[in-house]
Design a protein that fits this description.
The protein is built from five helices and 42 strands. By secondary structure, it is mostly beta strands. It has two domains: 209 residues, Jelly Rolls; 357 residues, Porin.
Length: 760
């Protein structure tokens, strides 16, 4: 029975893995992978996937080879081969007319076939571009800024992107291209050509065992190529896209209605004990670890406790202690508590600590469906949500992340409500929401107050600027840096700083401590139940909302990090709003909304943490924008719009539930539409299926149904559970959202989690 369940487990993983990657574009195959070789899939932030022989390379993927590694890939269409020497890192990028290897550093040997080619092959470095149509050559890219290209067969051109010069390189010749703009052609001796890894013993027994990949095996290259060709005959494309991400937890409670109120019926009693088990890999500080996560959940006497106990181990079985070093970092205890919950929102007193999902205040005009779990576990936020109900008076407090207090503040929400009487059941509510510092969401790994996007040393709190990018800090741009570690040629012009009168260095980076961008909001709402019965209920409501964005100017003006946000404000009115429940099956609501100035409904939505601040790079300059700047850039505070909002929550006899909402706001020149949906199956009567739901959300877009062109406000995903045996389920969670890659281009961020859940 155990073996049978294990086989089922493997089968499900394989099916779901193939399905989730079905739209990847495979351009090459890995034919050799020895030692330290990692893949970074398009849209991912780290090199988290171990390269495997026969694995696919998709358009936009990147490969990294460590000190004792070696890899070789073959392009599927023309059989060109690229061999990658140790200490190399580059990205594959195909367009209609070109095939580029965007290399950051390292050595590669290229054998580019002339036949069956319809694209120009290029090797692109920060300094140079080598273009070929068919030849064999080596490229050696040095981080110091001097590139070497050596020809073995055929001709190719080398272009220096600084000076604009071009030279041709033939067999037995080389080109030297420098970051200063220098470019020269010279003879090359046979000994200068890098040793071919085909006859080189890449991994010998003297290398450290920790740097070896014991699972990788050398195979005959010819045999591998033949097998790939045969595989291409049998299928049009090979698909293999493993993001090795981890899904956010926000989808767990997506079956709950966004319109739920404190007087809603209590949820189904929780099981006294549950256990989630997550096994996979994670890359931390560019090191690959095996991950084991235990997530027990305990429910006793109205109190629920969920823990997140994660252990990271390297290839030698050594446990990473940073996550458990409570002595030096007592705040780590926050990361172990997923949530602590007491009572329900209908209880006299209730509270929840940790994960906050589907957070709505009032009628939802300001905050609806917010979740602090969108980037979990990469970013661990610790929230607070508590409140009370005493007679006709109720109150609620919400904090998105108490960790942000040390970074200038967090998202805070307050609500107070009063019910006039049972004879006149009018409920009056007052809400206040503030984000004390939108910049607090910017990642700062070393905690030096300089966000990673501006910090040249994101893992060292004592350093921050490196003007020439050689890995040595600028003089005067660090904290207590010894003279022996300071760059003596900080601008990289080959002149020692003491002899250089024209030296220009980066200014002090943008600091979270010196700059704050806040937003505050408040709302007032009134609701009245017209009909209240088991068959039909009908209520009307109205709500007034206001948003205020104070002016922000960078304290330390720096052309690379200049930030300015003008003062903005706006308001919105819902009048009327109608909500009804029919036969216990369908909940519907309709609103007429009127908006003036810089206001959009549900500004604090589910994706708020993802787009609080957006960074974009243009050349050497980096620009940042807060969410309001991206939304309201096309109009001022005199802009007005109006439109309709509707939502429907349907439950068909306990078999399936569907929640959806749509809003359309129209002005003279601008139209914003929003759509949110959740589909949930009741798996109680479905054999072997323990969970099944899917969601799609897209707010404040021109066309939320344009599925081919997603935006930064798009969030989608699903959760499926397969019951392997009684009390044991295999859970597959997947989510996808989109982020600007820093150049104005949106890239998908795919998060996948597979875990085994135990229930007792």
């Amino acid at each position: 029975m155990r073996n049978k369940n294990l086989n089922i487990y493997k089968l499900i993983i394989s099916i779901l893995f193939c399905y989730s990657s079905a739209f990847s574009e495979s351009v090459a195959k890995i034919i050799k992978a020895e030692g330290v070789v990692y893949i970074k899939r398009l849209g991912m932030q780290t090199y988290s996937e171990v390269a495997q022989i026969g694995g696919s390379i998709n358009n936009g993927d990147a490969i990294k080879v460590g000190d004792y590694g070696f890899a070789a890939v073959i392009f599927i269409d023309d059989r060109s081969v690229v061999k990658i020497k140790p200490n190399s890192q580059f990205e594959f990028m195909d367009t209609k007319n070109t095939r580029s290897l965007n290399i950051e550093f390292g050595t590669i040997l290229n054998k580019i076939e002339k036949e069956n080619r319809n694209k120009t092959f290029r090797v692109v470095s920060p300094v140079s571009v080598a273009s070929v149509k068919g030849t064999e050559f080596a490229a050696m890219i040095n981080p110091s800024g001097v590139d070497q290209f050596i020809g073995k067969e055929g001709l190719f051109d080398v272009f220096n992107s600084v000076s604009g010069q071009t030279v041709s390189v033939g067999p037995g010749q080389k080109a030297l291209s420098g970051s200063s703009g220098s470019l020269m052609q010279a003879p090359a001796s046979p000994s200068e050509y890098p040793q071919d890894p085909e006859i080189e013993n890449v991994l010998d027994d003297s290398k450290p065992p920790s740097e070896r990949n014991e699972s990788s095996k050398s195979i005959d290259e010819t045999q591998t190529i033949e097998s790939i060709q045969e595989q291409n005959k049998n299928q049009d494309s090979s698909i293999e896209d493993n993001d090795n991400g981890t899904n956010n937890e926000s989808s767990r409670d997506q079956n709950s209605s966004n319109d739920a109120k404190p007087d809603s019926k209590p949820s189904t009693p929780k099981k006294p004990f549950g256990m989630g088990l997550g096994i996979g890999s994670a890359t931390i500080d560019e090191v690959l670890y095996n991950q084991i996560a235990l997530r027990p959940e305990i429910n006793i006497a109205g109190v629920g406790i969920g823990l997140d106990l994660v252990v990271y181990m390297d290839n030698e079985g050594n446990v990473r202690e940073d996550e458990w070093d409570f002595k030096n970092d007592p705040d780590l205890i926050y990361d172990k508590i997923l949530f602590i919950r007491f009572g329900e929102k209908s209880s006299p007193f209730w509270a929840k600590y940790g994960s906050i999902e589907n957070m709505t205040l009032g009628q939802g005009g300001l905050m609806k469906g917010y979740s602090n779990m969108m980037e979990f576990p990469t970013v661990r936020r610790v929230g607070v949500n508590t409140g009370f109900n005493v007679g006709p008076i109720g109150g609620e407090l919400f904090l998105s992340n108490i960790k942000d207090f040390s970074r200038g503040g967090t998202i805070m929400g307050l609500r107070a409500q009063y019910k006039v009487s049972d004879a006149l059941p009018i409920t009056i509510g007052l809400n206040y929401i503030s984000d004390a510092n939108m910049f607090s969401s910017m990642k700062d790994k070393d905690g030096d107050s300089f966000p990673d996007v501006f910090d040249d040393f994101p893992l060292d709190s004592s350093l921050w600027n490196d003007t020439d990018g050689d890995g040595w800090p600028d003089p005067g741009h660090g904290s207590t840096v010894p003279d022996s570690l300071i760059d003596i040629d900080s601008d990289g012009d080959n002149l020692v700083d003491t002899m250089d009168d024209s030296i220009t260095l980066k200014a002090r980076p943008f600091s979270i401590n010196d700059n704050k961008a806040a937003v505050s909001a408040w709302s007032f709402d009134i609701s009245y139940p017209i009909i209240s019965s088991d068959l039909l209920s009908l209520s009307i409501y109205t709500e007034f909302n206001s948003l205020l964005f104070p002016e922000v100017v960078t304290t330390n003006v720096n052309e690379d990090t200049l930030f300015y946000r003008p003062k903005r404000s706006g308001a919105g009115m819902t009048l009327p709003g109608i909500r009804s429940k029919l036969f216990g099956l369908l909940d519907i609501s309709f609103e007429y909304r009127s908006v003036k100035g810089s206001y959009v409904p549900q500004f604090f939505d589910q994706a708020y943490d993802l787009n609080r601040v957006i960074s974009m790079s243009q050349g050497t300059k980096t620009t940042i924008m807060t969410k309001d700047m991206s939304i309201f850039s096309d109009y001022d505070d005199n802009w007005t719009s109006s439109g309709l909002y509707g939502s429907a929550n349907m439950n068909l006899f306990g078999l399936v539930s569907f929640n959806a909402s749509y809003a359309s706001m129209v002005a003279d020149t601008v139209e914003y539409n929003s759509f949110n949906s959740v589909l949930t199956l009741n798996t109680d009567n479905i054999p072997k299926l323990s969970a099944a739901n899917a969601f799609y959300r897209r707010n404040n877009d021109k066309d939320p149904f344009d599925f081919k062109n997603p935006s930064e406000n798009t969030v989608m995903g699903y959760r499926v559970g397969y019951e392997m045996s009684k009390g044991v389920s295999l859970i597959w969670e997947y989510s996808e959202f989109y982020r600007d890659n820093g150049t104005g281009v949106l890239e998908p961020v795919k998060q996948t989690k597979v875990e085994t859940a135990f229930s007792f």
